[in-house]
TrEMBL record:
Organism: Leisingera methylohalidivorans DSM 14336
Gene3D superfamilies with a match to the protein in the record: 2.40.50.100, Nucleic acid-binding proteins, P-loop containing nucleotide triphosphate hydrolases
Lineage top rank: taxon: Bacteria
Lineage: Bacteria, Pseudomonadati, Pseudomonadota, Alphaproteobacteria, Rhodobacterales
GO terms for cellular component: ATP-binding cassette (ABC) transporter complex, substrate-binding subunit-containing
Name used for this protein in its record: ABC transporter ATP-binding protein
Domain ABC transporter: 9-241
Length: 364
């Protein structure tokens, strides 16, 4: 296991990049601590796989360094980085038994059979596949094949990091939650450094202690699932995470007060710096309430999603979603919307521009 440091990392697929737009990865500086569970989250084409390939050694970055426990591995090939990787599609040997598949990474490194047997049995017990160790891998279901692929990545105790590249893509939806839970349990038991790459927010937020959110080759926020939900650093994070995503509403700023649809909107706290760019209010639907007074709106759609109801409204020519627990109004109803002040943010050119009120900072 290792602490992983990315220092001033940038990468371009062009031989002579001339501007920032020529880089598939913008400059990245971050640390992943030894034994942590991390996720790279973002849409297709945002740079997740490029970054994963650089960490694994399949790509050499155009600029910057990759350090494992402060050792520079930037120029080392994959076989010298001591990593394990689990891919979208299970990488196993169909003609081998489950036992031999799990044993292969250890036997390939010359470990004695007593050690091999002990590790295989330990991982098999964690994965709940002990009863199928003598079966040929070819006869396994897709989810069990991916379990064995995960086990091959976890069976070695000497790896610096285990990397998962969209490992649940081909798994049936009703089985995904089982493997997500199993993977989280495995991390808690083996304490290996794990990096999970996905475009699925549910997978990232349920697995990782820290999530790196990427957009267009840039890291826009690093935080816990709670931080990403409650305090998005960028409107992209607010929109990408959550179902429905954050309400992003254009506004004007008048002497520090946000004005939307002619109504002053109380913000969480003071605006930081000059607000010279595009200004927007960000508020999660969970923190929008139907009230007797507030922002006038018209209900345009009501969606019962089981645990709660999403009420879609139109206000000031913009869509505003609210999550309500009961007594949802009918479509076409005139309502008023109240924004919870401590959860109402201002964004300038996409970036968070307000800080919490002084009393909240003191309480924190």
């Amino acid at each position: 296991m290792a602490k992983i440091t990315l220092s001033k990392l940038r990468h371009s697929y062009l031989s002579t990049p001339k501007s920032d737009s020529d880089y598939a990865l913008k400059e990245i500086d971050l640390d992943w601590n030894d034994g942590g569970a991390y996720a790279l989250l973002g849409p297709s084409g945002c740079g997740k796989s490029t970054l994963l390939n650089i960490i694994s050694g399949l790509l050499v970055p155009s600029e910057g360094q990759i350090l494992f426990d402060d050792r520079d591995v930037t120029a080392l090939p994959p076989d010298q980085r001591n990593i394990a990787q689990v891919f979208q599609f299970p990488v196993i040997y169909d003609t081998m038994s489950v036992y031999d598949n799990l044993a292969f990474p250890l036997r390939n490194r010359g470990r004695d059979e007593a050690t091999v047997h002990a590790r295989v049995m330990a991982i098999a017990e964690m994965l709940e596949v002990t009863g199928m160790l003598e079966q040929k891998a070819a006869g396994l279901s897709p989810d069990n094949k991916q379990k064995i692929s995960m086990g091959r990545g976890l069976v070695r105790e000497d790896v610096n990091v285990v990397m998962f590249d969209e490992p649940l893509t081909v798994i049936d939806p009703h089985l995904k939650w089982k493997l997500r839970s199993k993977l989280k349990e495995l991390h808690q038991r083996v304490k290996a450094t794990m990096i999970y790459v996905t475009h699925d927010q549910t997978e990232a937020l349920t697995f990782a202690d820290q999530v790196v959110v990427m957009q267009l080759g840039e890291v826009v926020q690093i935080g816990t699932p709670v931080e990403l939900f409650e305090r998005p650093a960028h409107t992209f994070v607010g929109h990408f995470i959550g179902s429905p995503g954050m309400n992003i509403l254009p506004c004007e700023l008048n002497q520090g007060t946000a004005v939307f649809a002619g109504q002053p909107i109380a913000l969480e706290g003071p605006v930081q710096g000059a607000a010279d760019g595009k200004t927007e209010i960000g508020i999660r639907p969970e923190f929008v309430a139907l009230a007797d007074h507030g922002l006038p709106a018209m209900v345009t759609k009501v969606s019962d999603v089981g645990r709660h109801t999403v009420v879609e409204c139109e206000a000031g020519g913009q869509r505003v979603n609210a999550v309500v627990e009961a007594n949802a109004p009918a479509k076409g109803s005139a309502v008023h919307l109240a924004f919870r002040q401590d959860m109402t943010r201002l964004y300038v050119d996409g970036w968070l521009a307000t800080s919490p009120a002084a009393d909240e900072q003191g309480a924190a």
